[in-house]
Write a structure and sequence with these properties.
Layout lengths: L8 E10 L2 E9 L8 E6 L6 E9 L2 E7 L11 E9 L4 E5 L8 H4 L5 E3 L2 E7 L5 E7 L4
Parallel strand pairs: 1-7
Antiparallel strand pairs: 1-2, 2-5, 3-4, 3-6, 4-5, 6-7, 6-10, 8-9, 9-10
Amino acid sequence: MGLQQVKPHAEIAEVWPRDGHIRLVGRIHGAPADGAWRLLLTRRAHVGRTLRYAADVEGDRFETELPVGDLTADDYAPVEEWDVHLTDGEVELRAGRHLDDVRGKKKIFVYPEQHVGDLRVRPYFTILDNLSLECRTGGSA
């Protein structure tokens, strides 16, 4: 079996959900890392709603963080998802973890929730090993 070709993406190495923030560390894979990169969050149910944050890039390594309080909204369904990308304004790279031998990260990696009022925010890997954020409203799980 040959090596799987992995398309350009933001390869996530570390996810740190704590102290009201989610810090992400990784590498830009398959795209030039020069330019001003930003973290881009897109609300899946309302793709016009996005949030952007500065990303520090040195070589192909990036580090960025977001305050979970920014994810609050008055029009949430009981469960909402935000998809995570890195962008330089022209290219959007989906954030995920694809360059290791671990498949099915959704069932393996479980990150702690953070609370903002009655909103619970948790990073998670999708069935395609991409990184997203899950926001749940209401009482504790």
